[in-house]
Amino acid sequence: MWNFAAKWGCSEVEDVRMAIATCVLEHLLEHHFARFFPLAATLARSNPQFARTVSSCWRFGQAEEPANALALTGLIAELRNDA
Description:
4 helices
């Protein structure tokens, strides 16, 4: 699932990125935050399209836990400042 999210989350098409953010990446972070957040952060820092995908994610499940929420919120702030 990560390869799918990484490929299509870098799309030039905004609707595709939003679909990946809300239908795939949010749920990977919801259930497997520790496994997928570092991958998402690395790709987002190197790819502006994926940065937009990550920035469109809401927090659910494990992504709502205080330390994880802080990490995700901090990454989104970092990505928006770099834009």
